[in-house]
Amino acid sequence: MKPDEKPSGDGLDDLKSRIDVARPKLTEERISTAKQIANRTASEAFGVAFSFVICILIGTVGGFVLDRALGTKPLFFLVGFFAGFALGVWYMIFKARQVAQREEE
What we know:
It contains three helices and no strands. With 105 residues, the chain is an all-alpha fold. The protein has a domain of 68 residues.
């Protein structure tokens, strides 16, 4: 083929028809189902992240309140922070196992 010649459309049309045959047709139902799964997954991830932050906050605030009441300044604050962090990590692992079990079924 010379540089100034354009390729014929037959090859491209053939390629397009082969792609159309090979690609599964997406129906509205399949698209809707995929969106629902994506929304559920995002919702679960947001919930786990929110719970993690709340666990740390509750532990830290609880420790701060105990420190003020007992006069033991950083002790219970730190204990509450690390206890909240540990509880948050435990909850993330717990939810991950739930999701893994649900996917196995």
